[in-house]
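Note to self: keep these together.
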Amino acid sequence: MYDPNPQFYKGVIDASGCISNAWNLIKPNYGLYLGISLLAWFAISCIPCANVFLLGPMMGGVYFVALRAMKGEPVEFGMMFKGFEKFVPLMVVGLIQSIPSIIYQGFDASVRIGGVSLDALTKGGRGGDPSFFQSPGPDFAIASGVLVVIIVGAVVLMIFSIVWAITFAFAIPITMEQNIGPIDAIKLSGRAAWGNVGGIIVLAILSFLLALVGVLALCVGVFFVLPVIWVAWAFAYRQVFPDLNPSDFRREPPPPDAYQGSFGQGM
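Structure:
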């Protein structure tokens, strides 16, 4: 039997500690984590259509390796495929998590079509009537309306994507580590993530800055910081759900600072 209401801590994420702990964890075996990260990135970014089905299982494998390494247990490259042992629930979580991305692709296609129409209208107005921008007409009103819709839609989609990302911050590792269904995992992730929203936002900003440094390093550098970013999120999960074990949910968890800034010290 598992606890349907596993414990989690609120307000405990040490964002800078997650980054430093991640680096301390992966640097003795950096090549392994780089290989795992590159394969996971390729599967979820470069395989059309199938990528939304692979997001959950591939990232589940990444979390499995990171969480196992945190316990001092040996890890190897093949363990990243452990997520496929829970393929269906992880796939469902990944599909739902990808909804903003799917909406964005549809929105982007609409914007491109709208952009072509807007360009045709404005060019037509300039060519046929020199006073096109001086006196509003039907074409100008349509073009302005399309532009307003695009701007409003982009803002709404951005806000929705941020809220969605926060809600799903822990959904994949929860599904990977616990014997609960995908919907329950998403609900639990939402409660835990919004209880730690400040730390999640700070960690997201630090992750973005780290990725930006990688991009500035001839672009390809982003791939070399990717393992640090993903393992940092695994540390954030472990700070919120310390020592979570599906077979032993009722055990009293350790204090919330157990997985913060001390990992790797004294080594």
